[in-house]
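Give me structure tokens for this 931-residue protein.
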Amino acid sequence: MESLSYGKKGGLASACFNADGIFTGGTGCIQKLKLRNLSDSPITQSDIDVDYSGFTGVLDNTCGIDGTDETGADCNVSTSPKEAVFNPIGSFDIYKAHTVYLGVVTAAGSSSPFDGTITVNYEQNGTQYTGTLEKCQVAAEAADDLCYDPPVEFDGFMCFQMGEFFGGGIGCTTTIHFRNQGDDTLYNPIVNVITNSMFNGHMIDDCGVDGTSGNCSDSDVLSGPFMGMSGLGMPRTLTYDPLPDFDSNETHSTYSSSLMSANLFSHTTLLGTYVKDGKLYRGEIHACGGKTHYLYGPFNAWDTFRDDASNPPADKNISTKLSGKNFYISVASLNKAGDIYETKPNAESIVVAIYNYDQDDSTSSELISDQNRTFDATSSSHVTDFGPFSVSKAHQHARVGFVFCASYSYDETNEDYLFVVHPASDCSDTTLHSCEFSSTTPVMRICFSQDDFAIRPKEFQFSAGSAGVLDLLRSGKDYNLTVKAVDEGGNPVLDYDRNKSDLALSQTLMLKDGTAADSTHPMNGTLGWAAHNFNISNGMSTEVGIIFNDVGKVDMNLTDQHWADVDADDTPQSCEGGVVGSANVPFGAWICGDENLTFIPDHFKVENIHLHNHMDGNFTYLSSDLNMSAHLDVNISARNAADVITRNFRTGNLYYENPVEVNLSVPQPIIDGYTLKSNEHNITTALLGFGGSDEANGTHAIAWNDTNASQHLMFNYLRTYNRPVNPFDLNGSDVNVTVRSVYTSNIDASKTAEVNGTGSGDRNATFFYARAKPSKYFYDDVVSATKTPIAIEVYNDPFTSTHDLNLSIFRPTGAFDWYLSTQHSIANGDGNVTLTGDANGSVAPASINPVEGVDSTVTVTNTGTPPDIAEINIVGSNTSSWLIYNKDKNSVPQPFYRVRFIGTSGWAGYGQTGHVVESNASRKKLRRLEW
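Here you go.
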């Protein structure tokens, strides 16, 4: 939700826990959320729902808006579900804010990260917006437009100062005048007056803005209508919220008063927040006019590669640094204007280190570097390659800090500020004060470098976690990876805490040869987050869910583009270094990581399986020889887990088709008490050519008559020459086709994955036992060349067969169990028969060509001397095995049939009595010599 966002926590005491501004636990706590309109258009009809489902404590039912208890009206707290609903909040003028609060929490919770969400609805410019509320993005620049005009005014009896600010007195009123010294309007300004002291006590308080009581609050942990106390060493914060908007050079004032007040050993810091140009600015408020001199103190630091040995460089920036990696800086002692190097007396022991620079508390002096160094500014005004320094943790705002002993005073006549550096021994009190803490007595103070910078992890690293190996991921499935944000040594970086919404996921689709896909060689697929949320805490992630909807290699890129927003002006906004202005910056501001992931199909879909008789005819002859077979059509597609076709599973050496095997599962029917054994032609492991010229990518169709014979899917049943069986129908639904592809990991060769798919067919095939049969097995009394018809028949015992024989195709013959196969076609590959004669006879044609099941042209001619017998045989090597039948044994019959020739001559021999017999031997049997 770009227009409406929330700021950091408000009103939480030190014993209360929060995660990124959302309450997570504590006792007696009040949760406040500052909601801001960062746009230049009003927001109307707004409401918000804060989900506390991850909170383990008990929520009080008190809640309100802008300090007003609205229980039962505009807000509600429920326990199931555990949430706070504020509806309506009210309209937001441009750049304006409202504060919602959730009353007293009566039971302790925990400091674990808040895992709920903040949901907001609002209307802007006539459009309704609904979504998750995000935290305000703080501008990289400090809040330098807002300043205060010294001196601070005191009015009352016995009022005294601690430095420039109020220290205590009776009946005193402190007034501070704030001014916009910039050129743009400052919207929704908020000022915090923070007093740190050994003891802070006061009675009967009042505060307000522009002389009117109100718009202010006191953070004292012990407070009431008549008195308040912060206690030993605890800060007191007066918050003025809101002040009126500041036009350019406009002034508004705050005041605070008390009957009696004592701030012992105190110093005061002013922090400001405002909106300008749609951005939120936060930081310390300095004195107006004083910023022109010693803007960042008498010392400064910048990157060594920006250095200028002769003069202070115009570019005094410090770019993003890497956690755990040594870096060097240039340090310098400067004149007031910051444009000349100068040495300083008594500045021999300036302690230089790296500090956390929280924009919500610019007085922070948390040391974060693993080292501190001493800069001797008495002998050298400028040292390049100063260091090394290293910071092991991650920080979004860090600055170089200079710690030294000095006094600091304001020259009202000349409107000038003056630092006087003292030897460290002059500051016996080691309490560390802010840079411009006004004191004519020397105190230890810390001044920061002009530029703040981020310290980031070196990179993201990935491991498979529960996903297994990263090159055997299934397309379309959610996988949880583990992400580490690591330093130079590969260790997770502490304090690097991010949510899913802070990170950007992108992809580069890679061709199989390792090059990136392009318009000439495109690839499909989108890499995205899985639905569940995750976070990174101290450099270690919870389960990071990703999903890719196609197959192939994907270069996954994870980027945090906003951790180092503070360096947006001086560091390349990229993963790598580069030139910014005239500086060659070694590291980019983005935290990046990439990993090659390879996705394989989740499964194959096997469909449109149609069973066909041989040559798509009406029958299939039983055959041990698969030249006579039932065939199948099959469509195969490689799919993801959502059953969507993966289009990168396609032919070509740049794409991701993987070899597959296709296997048939065929039933073994029992016919006439005899189990028929199947014989299948499967496709062994091969590239089938998915996404060929006439196919959609990711698919492949196998036709029953595919031009590629190696891809035929066909089967038949074994038969013997001497055991006919009745015909039977085979249902296509009983035939299963299984597709299998095996992948082996290139990362770990011991890891494999199988992609499978199966389907069953439709339609039927009818199987017949067939034979080639001569018209007679023995032709007798043949005088000359004679026709010997050859028929193709199928077996069907009408008493035992369960098959309904189609008599228009299979006609009865003289043999009771055999039927003429009238549609047998040599041209259709139904089978051929080749015959041969012996020395006594020749047969022509040698290869039969039946018409309606019979070849009546086959003629046997005597080539011997009659009387003799010609034997006609089947040429087994040239005859289709499924047409050979031998009732006597399981072998090719020898002979197939015989023809007896008796010739046409006269008497053919002598009788038993030795007398000559009738010489006309051409007559019928009664005139023929019997043998």
